[in-house]
Amino acid sequence: MHLADTGSTDPFDRSLVLLTVEEAARRLRIGRTTCFRLVLAGEIESVTVGRLRRVPADAVPAYVSKLRRRPAEAA
């Protein structure tokens, strides 16, 4: 059965522009609480839509790129 048939959302649906923090955490393969901490610390970009916190889909690969640059900068 395809995910669309079950009503579930695909955590890697490339058509999504904004992700919930939980969806961003799944993409990063980290815990929800860890992802919320990174968002609140400003490590992962996020926006507020009304009372909701959302992570732009392109902020996830941007965060990974930032992590990949850190060891080079420290050396």
Structure explained in plain terms:
- The chain is an alpha+beta fold and 75 residues long.
- It has helices spanning 3-6, 21-28, 32-40, 59-74; strands at 18-19, 47-49, 52-56.
- Residues 1-6 have low confidence and may be disordered.
* Percent of sequence in beta strands: 5-15%
Shape: globular
What is the ordering of alpha helices and beta strands? HEHHEEH
User: What composes the largest sheet?
Assistant: 3 strands, antiparallel
Concise account of the structure shown:
By secondary structure, the protein is α+β, with helices and mostly antiparallel strands. The protein has helices at residues 3-6, 21-28, 32-40, 59-74; strands spanning 18-19, 47-49, 52-56.
Question: What topology does this entry show?
Answer:
Blueprint: H1 3-6, E1 18-19, H2 21-28, H3 32-40, E2 47-49, E3 52-56, H4 59-74
Antiparallel strand pairs: 1-3, 2-3
Helix pairs in contact: 2-3
Highlighted features:
globular; 75 residues; disordered N terminus; three-stranded antiparallel β-sheet; alpha+beta
